[in-house]
User: Fold these one by one.
Assistant:
Number 1:
Amino acid sequence: MDESLYLRLADETFERIQAALEPLDPDLVDFEFSHDVLQIVFADGARCVINTQRPARQLWLAWDRRAWHFDWDESKGQWLDDKGQGVELLSKVREIVKEKAGAEIAL
């Protein structure tokens, strides 16, 4: 994938996540976006971090001492983990927000 397509897909993904988080009570879940890094901040200070990894053309997610690397799967139109375990980025974000804040988000 060329860099312009990668950046467009990454930007669309960040915008989609932010739009889903925007309606939530910021005392429960807030977010900060800067320089291709999206931090989802929970009431207790815990953070879920999603960032670009341009050389690899991946999105990375870090949460609770774990990390996932996601590649764009053109045939499915999804960011899928590079370990082939079937983890999809937006589903993982939805799961984390539900688990940590008890909030459902539509992604």
Note: The longest helix spans residues 3-21.
Number 2:
Amino acid sequence: MRSNPTVNDSIVAAEWVLPIAGAAIHHGAVAVREGRIAWVGSLESLPSEFAGWPVALHAGVLTPGLVNGHTHLQYTGFADLGRGSYTSFEHWSEEFEVFYDAVQDPAEWGRAARDGAALALASGTTAFAEIVTDEPARGVLAEFGLQGIEYLEAIGETETRWNAGGREAFTAWLDQPTAGVVGVSPHAPYSLDGEVIRELTALARSRGMRIHSHVGESEVEASLYDFGNRDVLEIYGDMRDEFALIRNGGTGLSTARYAASIDLLGADSHLAHGIYLDRADRDLLRDSGTRVALCPRSNRVIGLAAAPVADYLREGHEIAVGTDSLSSSPSLDLLADVAALAELATSQGYADADLHERVLYAATVGGAAVLDRTDIGALREGMRADLAVFDVKVAEGEDPRTALVTRGEGSCTLTVIGGDVRHARGA
């Protein structure tokens, strides 16, 4: 098997380097040794110990590899669904079920996940918070050398079903050996009974695993937790009546308070979407250490409200950003979602000068944080040599972060993971 080209024992340089961990560097460079960053700085101040190393000079902007805070790579084959437009989460869910049920060959989940991994690599992404619903999609991150966590998903489990074999089946799945890091994904507080989620989160915590769920994605979700509105569970048909929230007429709690009551919040957990949450709910997430991965383009396709990006930024949240899957998003290019976040924040009145810095932080350090990783997401000596280069022209006097946020989509020319070249445009 042919090995990947490497940038080990060499200098990767660019017109601009964005360490994220520090100020932008004009004519910057990164020295790579044994898969790690050995030095970061201005090319003209290269230390003598690296003077004999080859230098690869790239046009544009060099960054850490991007970190996608929410994906389902196994749905890469559902791109036709993601190219549609929908009026609500419930409308999209009905169409999603048609696509899902049409998959007859389980191996398709693995093929689609591999296709998705390749697409994401080609756009500069090197790490993922990846949800796996079907076994054939498992192990793809490790296969591609990608960093991150594969969260095994539980969905549609009422207490009755959980006690009739669901518990044993999920635990056995979790016990299967795998090459990568594993987490637990209780799909959403509406698609699992609360007692099931309590067991799932306890199981994850007993094994030191992280937790990832979908919260605040549906406009009618809150009314289920409050008084038992059945609308968000429409795709479950007659099975809806098995869910405790419907049988009990809700709980009278808001979305985040209900999530807290079933042990879904905490510093070891992060949520996708977080759209339909008021200030009190958002404060509860922040104060509990629960981070949110915002997925603006997916929300737009499904027909949802815009996430309160400006509020998250003003209120002191450390957000991440995700593409979601091609079943609800036009592409797996994370910089397209970074641009969308910036546009939303501006439209919502965020006028601070740090906007582009913060949304890039969300796609790097913020994503690393939801994976509980401190060795990725920035360019600093000793960190992993996970790098991306974007062929973006930075005008004289322009902040390179602004250039990358506003024009970075589709511009990745190089992706490096642990010193190995995993994507090179034209290679």
Note: The two ends are 18 Å apart (CA to CA).
Number 3:
Amino acid sequence: MSGISGSMGSLPGDHPSHRMRISNMAALSQNLDTDALVEANMKAAEVPLVELQQTQAQQAQLQAVWRSLQKKLEGFKNTAESLHLEGNFNAFKAQTPPNSGFTLTPSDNAHIGHHDISVASLARPGVVVSSGLADPDKASVLNIPPDGALSHGIITFLIGDHLIGGSYKTIRIDQSSGFTLNDLASAINKAKIGVHAMVMRTGQPGRPYSLSLSSSKNGLNFRVAGTEGIGMTFHVVQKASMAHLTVDGVPVVSSSNDVKDAVPGTVLHLVSPTSGNAPVGVSIVHDRKKITSNIQSFVKNYNDLINFISENSRYDKATGRGGPFLGSFTVTDIRNRLATTLTKPITGNGPYHTLSDIGLDFGQDGRLTLNQSTLDRALGGDYKGVVGVLAGSAGKDRTEGVLRTLHSDLDDLTNPVTGPVTGELSALTNEGESTEKEIEHKSESLSDLRDSLEEKYSNLQSLLGGLNAKQNYVSQQIAKGTL
């Protein structure tokens, strides 16, 4: 303590100004908030990090917008795919009078034309029904003898005609399978012999449940050829039959009531014999409604794409900020390329050479509008011409339709490797990775700075604490009059 008393001895101990300095030192030691000082320094040092994080968020937002543009382009391409090939216009419908006894469904492989059809009979399965039992799950189907010795039952079917390719199939039921009506039905179905079995409620007094058997194919007859130990009888209630019809005077026989390709490229769905077997006229025509629906979807998807681009290319005067696509050469090029293709006329295609000729008008705002009446007249007047201007035509006079060219453009624009949007996303990804590295580096530097500040302010607090202790000692000595 001699050092302290010596160093302080030269000061007049009772001088007020020196007592004030000692008091201030004590206050400084007691009120020093080192945590607040560290945080204040860190807040100033973290400004560049916050700016980097804001940049990273903006880059993520830009990536999301460009990905949305890619999806819009891909969706528009998918819509264009329904119109860019001649085969896309092979949409047909059948015009059939009511109560015809049949309906007709054309496929894309059908042909325009008129056909006369008459239906003589429908295809039916053979049906056999058993005598009844009181309960389907409790009553036994076995004809048990008085001695109760019978332990199984056998039922034999003749599938088909025994003279022409028929075959016998045997079903056995025993203790393992069970002996009820439902057990017998299950055993027959599991055997897969061409006969389907089910238990039906007939409502006959005392014996309301019977086994209904039907051939799995129309036109296939069968019968129960014999039984052993089965206490039921079986009788035929419906003979199997084939469907008989004529198409343009040509006899047709079918085992199904859905007759494929009797009219090429169609399926005839037989419902009932035609009245008096008189032929019914049916016409196959172009399904303009389906084509119109595809064109409407095309217009909607294109305008959705243009609206998305426009919304993200605006300049906001209030904020002084532009949209993510404002000034983008890539977006401008995409929009110009699509507009050029959609407005370019084609040659060698009859009366229609532009989309406007068939009701698709390209406005000054870059959007498409559909004039439905013009389209309807075009489809009714020259269906092939509409197909030509949209999809082109093959053969020696081959032409490239507007939408075929457009589809090729969209292939390029949506290419996952070389497409322009892919390039923008790749550049943004690289920028994002660079920003992420800067953030990591800055975060490490700030962590080191925090450690350094905490150490410095801790040392300062220790120093001030030591001075405070010396102050207390000196104050005590002064109070004792030793200094």
Note: Residues 212 and 424 are 69 Å apart (CA to CA).
